[in-house]
């Protein structure tokens, strides 16, 4: 699985949330079949990884207990792994991660970056599996009040560096770590845009970067009607694809998306045009009007 971390091409992580609001109708087995079927479709559409989460992390969401979370994710992980799908588990609980790895999960996607459960580093270290360390400041109920930064990019970078140091100090190998700015987690829309436009400063940490903008509310606000009504979740796909391609062109290792087919198609176009990279670095001087004119003439 270390190969996945070192992958040069963009990695597409498909989202499979097995929370009651995703699969509310039908009995337990119908839910399981629906979840597994969806996971297989995500893989067939081009997902390198299917990310299975059993606890909603939406702002304001109430927590569920570890046993409920495990009951939701473990059967889906077992079946998808048996079907040959590479799976990550989206959890902040060491107990759930440990059981998920035993059930076949290959990657731990921890939205708390190791902060929520001090035992997570041990689990990841012993499993030698990749670990996504997302930038996080607190559980869903509290995250709105935690969205205060001096400079969001500088602060997120410094906090991710602390998460990396803690992981390394606990014995986790550097080549298992992936960082993620955590769009929408204790971030306003403006913070999300600032992070999106200054990814090179986060890439400068020297770790693969996962970018998860898919269908998030800041895209809904960008595309709001004149009276301020946000664009509904299901109609944010073109914006999701645009942010994902821009993130990959800026150097992101991977993107976490709901509509894998749309993103995979867009990334195929990006690859067919020579995988162009956005030529920006945090130290680049801003382009002057003169440069622009020059570029146009050529
Ligand atoms: N976002 C959500 C859940 N898990 N994991 C990572 N690594 N990065 C994210 O941005 C992220 C995540 C919330 O989005 P969802 O409710 O659409 O799954």
From TrEMBL:
<keyword id="KW-0289">Folate biosynthesis</keyword>
<dbReference type="GO" id="GO:0004156">
    <property type="term" value="F:dihydropteroate synthase activity"/>
</dbReference>
<keyword id="KW-0479">Metal-binding</keyword>
<keyword id="KW-0460">Magnesium</keyword>
<feature type="region of interest" description="Disordered">
    <location>
        <begin position="279"/>
        <end position="298"/>
    </location>
</feature>
<dbReference type="Pfam" id="PF00809">
    <property type="entry name" value="Pterin_bind"/>
</dbReference>
<comment type="similarity">
    <text>Belongs to the DHPS family.</text>
</comment>
<keyword id="KW-0808">Transferase</keyword>
<protein>
    <recommendedName>
        <fullName>Dihydropteroate synthase</fullName>
        <ecNumber>2.5.1.15</ecNumber>
    </recommendedName>
</protein>
<feature type="domain" description="Pterin-binding">
    <location>
        <begin position="10"/>
        <end position="268"/>
    </location>
</feature>
<feature type="compositionally biased region" description="Basic and acidic residues">
    <location>
        <begin position="282"/>
        <end position="298"/>
    </location>
</feature>
<dbReference type="InterPro" id="IPR006390">
    <property type="entry name" value="DHP_synth_dom"/>
</dbReference>
<dbReference type="InterPro" id="IPR011005">
    <property type="entry name" value="Dihydropteroate_synth-like_sf"/>
</dbReference>
<comment type="function">
    <text>Catalyzes the condensation of para-aminobenzoate (pABA) with 6-hydroxymethyl-7,8-dihydropterin diphosphate (DHPt-PP) to form 7,8-dihydropteroate (H2Pte), the immediate precursor of folate derivatives.</text>
</comment>
<comment type="pathway">
    <text>Cofactor biosynthesis; tetrahydrofolate biosynthesis; 7,8-dihydrofolate from 2-amino-4-hydroxy-6-hydroxymethyl-7,8-dihydropteridine diphosphate and 4-aminobenzoate: step 1/2.</text>
</comment>
<dbReference type="InterPro" id="IPR045031">
    <property type="entry name" value="DHP_synth-like"/>
</dbReference>
<dbReference type="InterPro" id="IPR000489">
    <property type="entry name" value="Pterin-binding_dom"/>
</dbReference>
